[in-house]
Amino acid sequence: MRTNNENQEFTMTAKTFHGLEEVLAFELKKIGAKNINKAKRAVYFEGDKSILYKSNLCLRTALRILKPISSFTAKSEHELYKKVKKIVWQKFIDLNDTFIVDTTISQSNFFNHSKYVSQKTKDAIVDQFRDKFGRRPSINRVNPKIRVNIHVRQSEITLSMDSSGDSLHKRGYRMHKVEAPINEVLAAGIILLSNWDKDDILKDPMCGSGTILIEAGMIAKNQAPNINRKNFSFQFWKDYDEQLFKKIKQELLNNETQLTRKIEGRDYHFASISATRTNLRQVNLLENVELKRFNFFDQKKNNPKRHIIFNPPYGERLEIKDPDFYSNLGVVLKDYYSKSVVWIITSDIEKVKLIGLKPSKKIQLFNGPLECNLLKYELYD
Ligand SMILES: C[S@@+](CC[C@H](N)C(=O)[O-])C[C@H]1O[C@@H](n2cnc3c(N)ncnc32)[C@H](O)[C@@H]1O
Question: At what angle do helices 211-220 and 270-282 cross, to 10 degrees?
Answer without folding.
Answer: 30
